[in-house]
Design a protein that fits this description.
With 460 residues, the protein is of the alpha/beta class. The protein has two domains: 3-214 and 412-428, Aldehyde Dehydrogenase, Chain A, domain 1; 219-406, Aldehyde Dehydrogenase, Chain A, domain 2 (3-Layer(aba) Sandwich), CATH 3.40.309. The chain is built from 15 helices and 18 strands. The chain has helices at residues 3-17, 25-41, 43-54, 58-84, 122-133, 147-160, 173-181, 193-204, 228-240, 260-275, 291-299, 351-359, 374-383, 419-424, 449-458; strands spanning 87-89, 99-107, 110-114, 137-141, 166-168, 186-190, 210-213, 219-222, 252-256, 305-308, 312-313, 318-319, 322-325, 342-348, 366-370, 388-391, 412-413, 426-434. The strands form four sheets. Strands 10-13-14-9-8-15-16 form a seven-stranded mixed sheet, with helices on both faces. A hairpin with a 4-residue loop joins β11 and β12 (318-319). α2 packs across α6 (147-160) and α3 (43-54) packs across α4. The model has no long low-confidence stretch (mean pLDDT 95).
Length: 460
Amino acid sequence: MEIQELSQNHKKQKDFFYTHKTKDIKYRIIALKTLKNAIIKYEDKIYDALYKDLHKSKFESYASEIGIVLEEINLHIKKVKSWAKPKKVGTRQLVHFWSKSYIYHQPYGQILIIAPWNYPFQLLINPLVGAIATGNCVTLKPSQYTSNIAKVMEEMIREFFDEEYIAFYQGGRDVNQALLKEKWDYIFFTGSPVVGKIVMEKAAKFLTPVSLELGGKSPVIVDKNANIKLAAKRIAWGKFLNAGQTCIAPDYLLVHKDVKNEFLEQFVNNIKLFFGNNENNSEYYPRISTEKNIVRLAKLLNGVNVYYGGKYHESTKYFSPTILTDIKPESEVMQEEIFGPILPVLEFAELTDVINFVNERSKPLALYYFSNSRKKQKEILYKTSSGGCCINEVIMHIANNKLPFGGVGNSGFGQYHGKYSFETFSHKRSIIKKSNIYDPSVRYAPYSKLKYKLLKMILK
């Protein structure tokens, strides 16, 4: 695509937004229903594309991509009317005599959504749902590394929506750069902290508000009084979902020294239970996105103790579930988010040491703690910070659209899912409506001592 054409389309979309059609609630609901019908029509193509790009099974594709989006659409169709109604709030009558106060939710205008490759359908279309529900026009940019699903999504969007309403652009860095040169009313980006900083820098030129859904090294902590068998099962599922290419995957394990051996034994048993003795032959075990990432992951195995796994094939993009033990905090695998099926294991003796270890590092997108002690659960929640947290569970907080999803600090900012998507993609406009019947003179000059005393009485 010519860059000039992109700019022209951007202008057309802006003009369409100012026809004010998208602000109409009926228009938004019709668009949401249209998107739902589009997904249902293209469902088989989506499955096929996700399998080609990431070797995702049909079950995993629906559970982690399609199903989440359809649930989000249904919620917005049901709730958008009530969410969009002006909200009357209290008014200090002595200050605002005969006034009424409201909050209006208004669309920002033109939204740019940039998605990554690990959940290429969900992380592009899910924020689109909130942007549509709030009355915006949207431009979508998928990752170039999952080309099959990108082609299917482009075909789907172009069939069901006009480009002046929802535009779709494929391409690499040059297209991203061209898009970020345009003036947007809001940018929603999901990806790495490195690229997130670039997006934020470009947005700063126009003072464009942004949501950055990033990542980080999310710890999973297994204490000695946890249900070890169940913890091992749940963590193995969460770690190897999408072959570890999940922004909220357990990145590293902190396990109490008294239960370490028992946990590792159970953990390996669950890997074999899920994928068989040879994960490469399993139809349920996904693949790494690119050969480049295979090489990156393989380097993390240099000079460390491989307790289990460690096998990979560049050409087929297979990387086995891998456990590393005797890991030191200064090890290379502990410096950056792994984003793959490698689990470094560190042991601890006291929970205080774990809390200090976590707090000395950047705030993670998620934190997971396994323990049957309510006292220790409260201590973890009180003394640590993360975007989200699960107790005796991993990842599943993302599946509840009544919870806000987002990061804190280096793991990002801005929240979405459910009503939080509606809040994110709409500007909350403060409105005061005042009567003309009476206009007290106390606020107008000249200011007498009496007016000053009245002011102090009112605003004390």
